[in-house]
Amino acid sequence: MNVLITGGAGFIGSCFARTAALEKADWNCVVLDKLTYAGSETNLEPVSDKVTFVKGDIADTDLLNRLFQKYEFRVVVNFAAETHVDRSIKNPEAFITNDIIGAYRLLEVCKSYDLDQFVQISTDEVYGEVLEGFSVETDPLMPRNPYSASKCASDRLAFSYFATYDLPVVISRCSNNYGPYQHPEKLIPLFVTRLMEGKKVPLYGDGMNIRDWLYVEDHVRAIFCLIDKAEIGEVYNISANEEHVNKEITHMILEEMSLGLERIEYVEDRVGHDRRYSMNSQKIRDLGWKPRYSFQESFSKTVQWYRQNESWWKSL
Ligand SMILES: NC(=O)c1ccc[n+]([C@@H]2O[C@H](COP(=O)([O-])OP(=O)(O)OC[C@H]3O[C@@H](n4cnc5c(N)ncnc54)[C@H](O)[C@@H]3O)[C@@H](O)[C@H]2O)c1
Prior knowledge:
By secondary structure, this protein is α/β, with parallel strands linked by helices. It has a domain at 2-175 and 214-239: Rossmann fold (3-Layer(aba) Sandwich). It is 40% helix and 18% strand. The chain is built from eleven helices and twelve strands. It has helices at residues 11-23, 61-71, 85-90, 93-110, 146-165, 187-196, 216-229, 246-256, 282-285, 295-308, 310-314, and strands at 2-6, 28-33, 52-55, 75-78, 117-123, 169-174, 176-178, 201-204, 210-215, 235-238, 243-245, 264-267. The strands form three sheets. The chain has a seven-stranded parallel sheet with strand order 3-2-1-4-5-6-10, sandwiched between helices. Strands 7-9-11 form a three-stranded mixed sheet. The two termini are 33 Å apart. The chain binds nicotinamide-adenine-dinucleotide. Nicotinamide-adenine-dinucleotide binds at residues 6-7, 9-13, 33-36, 38-39, 57-59, 79-83, 98, 102, 121, 123, 151, 174, 176-177, 183.
């Protein structure tokens, strides 16, 4: 089966491609990625003989048509997006261009071909902040920053292609991922790499914002589960129910690196910083998925990975 992985040179997409190349013997994976600052072909190096890499934009209709005609994809997984909330606050336009218009162009091309499934990778951030309880898939979407608003637009746009044109769309909304190969602008790699350089770590506000942490390989296997078993037209939350405040995550990194709390520098909070996201993921668990890895073990493995792979993050 030919599978198109867009954004497959980024953090989660490359984990998806690496894992699929090793575990899905009957899949032939093609990665399409425009290699923004966040994407790197080196993320695919471990499987470069098994995965085809194409540099290009999901908004490039001609290129997409050529790829569809050549490979006759059965499944498309759309990871491609601008992904950093802070950048979206400074420059929303890149998010409108890539996350909304890019997704629209990709959906338009996909609707002209015979596909088994189009997976749109959305996020828990589309629900907006959830101070109490857990978001379920039918909850209203209340995104509060340009990143989550753009992701909300592509999430609903993908759904509209199911409802209007019968495109076999499935939407996944996952929580905060962590693991190897994440760009060092994101919290865990940012803090580990700054500490390695002898710097302090900038913790937003009072450090009490809550995120639900999901190991990237668990996320990838959840998408495999959706490709096998999801009902077309449905939305699935993906979370490991590992809620931790940012301060606790910071303390865990410091402890892992045998460093003291004086390395924390509290900085002015992100504007409109959502206090908490939290989702109920029973719907995908009913399909048989559950996280394989313990938080403590995979967190520690992740910190070690950045410590042992300095050449990877220094070359970005
Ligand atoms: N990282 C998380 O915790 C998280 C949580 C929920 C949802 N998501 C979603 O998962 C997906 C992947 O996230 P990530 O953390 O791997 O992001 P990332 O920033 O590491 O990677 C994104 C990749 O998309 C590529 N890209 C961007 N615009 C493109 C375009 N127009 N055409 C082709 N390629 C393009 C980039 O070059 C990069 O390789 C995104 O859609 C993101 O919104 C991420």
